[in-house]
Structures are given as structure tokens and as C-alpha cells.
Design a protein that fits this description.
Elements lengths: L8 E9 L3 E5 L3 E5 L2 E9 L4 H10 L8 H6 L3 E8 L6 H10 L4 E2 L15 E4 L8
Antiparallel strand pairs: 1-4, 1-5, 2-3, 4-7, 6-7
């Protein structure tokens, strides 16, 4: 992950799942995922910042520590959007995505079991853009 900064920040992982399938997601159990795009909002405020956290998510041999690690082993990562803003924006970004038409919250408590957000995972049938 040499191209990603070691600074702390917030990120969105954009995944594409090429076919509908059931995926085991840790304690959430087996979940039916539809073919389409999934946006996951996360943050990296620990040691190594964005580079370390995203490096974990992208490493197929890394332990499955977070919900997204299970989906990330199956779906294709299309894009990474990130901000090096030192403010913790993860919850605001999740709220903003939830408020945008066409981005459907996918699964209650996915990536948000430690906060009051409904979810940090959003589904779209069409490829997303940062502008929309």
C-alpha cells in the first residue's frame, strides 16, 4: 500500500459482486448479497493510518477482523476513496450515504456494531461515482 498515506483518515471501499450469493459474515451469520456494488465506510485512526488499515483489508491472508473483510474476500475491489482529514468523519459519511437517493443501506450493524449508525455498508445496482 505504498501509494496510500500513513496519515489517519476516513475511507470508502467500493466493491463489485459479480453474482448474487450467500456469504458468511462473522457473528452476523450467512447473508444473501445481491449482484451489484457495495460501498463500505470505515476509518483508520490507529497506528499506520490509512496505509495499515487498507493494507489489512486488501490482504487476502490477513485475519478476518472486521465485517468487510468477509465480503472483501469474495467481491472485487473497484475503487478506494479516502480523506486524510484528522477529524473522525466515518459516521457523518455513513449518514450522508444513507441520505443519498439510490444508495440503499444494506445490512443493519454491518461495520457499525460499535456505534449508533444503522450500517456502514450501502448497496447500489449501478456503478457509483464520487459526484453522486
Amino acid at each position: 500500500m505504498n501509494s496510500l498515506p500513513s496519515a489517519c483518515g476516513t475511507y470508502v471501499l467500493v466493491y463489485f459482486l459479480s453474482r448474487s450469493q450467500k456469504i458468511e459474515i462473522g457473528r452476523l451469520g450467512e447473508i444473501a448479497f445481491r449482484k451489484g456494488y457495495y460501498l463500505y465506510v470505515g476509518s483508520a485512526f490507529g497506528r499506520g493510518g490509512l496505509s495499515a488499515r487498507l493494507g489489512h483489508h486488501l490482504n487476502p491472508k490477513a485475519p478476518k477482523r472486521w465485517h468487510i473483510d468477509h465480503l472483501g474476500r469474495i467481491a472485487e475491489l473497484m475503487e478506494i476513496w479516502f480523506s486524510r482529514n484528522p477529524a473522525k468523519l466515518e459516521h457523518q459519511w455513513a449518514g450522508a450515504l444513507a441520505g443519498i437517493v439510490g444508495k440503499q443501506p444494506f445490512l443493519k450493524k454491518f461495520g457499525s456494531s460499535d456505534c449508533c449508525c444503522y450500517t456502514h455498508l450501502f448497496y447500489l445496482s449501478q456503478k457509483p461515482t464520487k459526484e453522486k
